[in-house]
Amino acid sequence: MVTQSRALATRDAILRGAAEVFGARGYGLASISDIATSAGLTKGALYFHFASKDELALAVIAEQHRRTMEASAAILAEGRPALESLVLLCRSLGRQLLEDPVVQAGIRLTTDVGTAEQAIVEPYEDWFRAIEELIRRAIDEGDVSERLDPGMFAHLLSPAFTGVQLVSATLTGRADLLQRIRELWIVLLPGIAADGRLDALRSLPDLVVGG
Questions:
Q1: What residues have CB less than 8 Å from 128, skipping those under 6 apart?
Q2: CA angle centred on 202, ends 201 and 204, rounded to 5°
Q3: Per CATH, the architecture of 53-208 is what?
Q4: Whole-model pTM?
Q5: Under DSSP, is residue 144 helix (H, G, I), strand (E, B) or coil?
């Protein structure tokens, strides 16, 4: 049991070290030596847990995705209206990008085409499904226009969010990220709101920068 606990602690240290290096340098410029140093381990100890940089990058992405999905599940469990929940999911991911180095690194790696030989698609597909389901619910609840194609919107919102956070990271180190997410929703709402519902929904984007 002690050996297993120690192994788990070492693995966690490696993931934290990898997140620090990947988040700062991206996949291409990160090295195993740098990651080992950041984790406070030898390269040999690191290779005992991860056979390659690709394997380590994929582990960081998997942990990032677990954390974002866990936070999303907590929001959905609150039972709010679907469109409000979707705005809060965007706020949650934005805050994780500001506060959690593993999430920062994982998101960066999924948008880095050099991460692995095979493109990273599962996180995107999970978000597409989640957004599409929430939009379908929002249509049923009367907040979103029935003319909107839920799948089309899902394939718009997810890359739009990705673009917003990438530009925010480049220009301000994400200092303005929550405000930019708020503005994204201000622009999107008039195009998706059901007839007669826009005025009642106008305050939803403010949730992104609220407490």
A1: 151, 154, 155, 158
A2: 70
A3: Orthogonal Bundle (1.10)
A4: 0.88
A5: strand
The predicted pLDDT at position 2 comes to 43
Alpha helices in the chain, H assignment, sequence order: 2-29, 32-39, 43-49, 53-76, 82-99, 101-110, 122-140, 150-172, 177-192, 198-201
pLDDT (tens place) for every residue of the chain, 211 residues total: 445 677 778 888 888 899 999 988 888 888 888 898 888 888 888 888 888 888 899 999 999 999 999 999 999 999 999 999 999 999 999 999 999 999 999 988 887 754 556 677 888 899 999 999 999 999 999 999 999 999 999 999 999 999 999 999 999 999 999 999 999 999 999 999 999 999 999 999 999 998 6
β-strand partners of 144: 193
CA atoms within 13 A on the CB side of 117: 2
- CA nearest to 29, candidates 21, 20, 37: 21
DSSP state letter for 72: H
Residue 40's φ and ψ, nearest 5 degrees, are: 75, 30
Helix (H/G/I), strand (E/B), else coil: 208 = helix
3-state secondary structure of 74: helix
Q: Tokens 């070290």 sit at which residue?
A: 17
Looking only at Cα atoms, what is the longest distance across the chain? 63
Structure tokens at 68: 């974002």
In this structure, which amino acid lies at residue 112?
D
